[in-house]
Amino acid sequence: MGQLRLGINLEFARHADKPFRWAVEQAAAIGYEYVEPMVHFGRELLSEAGYFHSLSLFEDPLTVAAVCERAGVKLSGLSAHMPLCKPEISTEALKMAVRFAAECGAPVVNTDEGPKRPWTTDEEDFVLIKYVLTEVAAVAEPRGILIGLEPHQQYSRTPEGLDRIASLVQSPAIGINFDTGNAYLCGQDPVAWLERVLPRVVHVHAKDISAEQAEAERGQVTGTPVGCACGDGVIDWPMIVQLCRAAPRDLVLSVECGAVEQAKRSYAFLSRLLAECSV
After folding, report:
1. How many angstroms separate the CA atoms of 76 and 266, rounded?
2. Rounded Cα distance, 129 and 137, in Å
3. How far apart are CA 105 and CA 12, in angstroms?
4. How far is CA 181 from CA 108, 195, 243, in A?
5. What CATH class has 4-277?
6. High-pLDDT (> 70) share of the chain, %
């Protein structure tokens, strides 16, 4: 049984028009122990101008580590969603993300398979995904970095599809970043799905879904960027926490919400729940 900790994906700062450092400091001030930055390949105007939290993989990873250390938080992973179906985009970018993670101290790099090209077949896509994961795993294994495959796109929207992706390459570096909200919106039972994949889970996106969004989108989408505050929606958090506590490794619940106020409510709710469940 591993330890369960609280973290937050820096997407909570996406509408605040503030940079990475500000997002880290806000997360620390709320009380989160871990942060999960989003990284991108190349340079991006809003990030360079200080109006967005995303980090370029061309930044110095030691600077990223220093910002987190000064704020008193640790890195749970990197959100590096590069489409595995598109090797011309994802292969080198994910290998770079792995090297970045190793140097800044983030143990997990999270990604997903899509979206796909409209002109490829399913079987062609799985060959492309296997190619990318083989290349990335070869870089991740010697560095001790884990790849978190997330249920988020056309193939990973079912337990069988995610299992197929995760089994394409036999590597100890490949695991699952389980997203509670995406699993629910895909039309699945997040508790049953999490139980199914628990031995392979390396990171968790703690995403709640409002009743309104659930009614409008469930079964019609494969995921969503962020959810509502944890505890405000439809996810069965006591069961999610109970399962995560039974996982074979330490896990971080990395909250995915869309505003600072939601981050505060999520922290209050999950902190209270973790305390109650430990009694």
Report:
1. 17
2. 12
3. 21
4. 20, 15, 16
5. alpha beta
6. 99
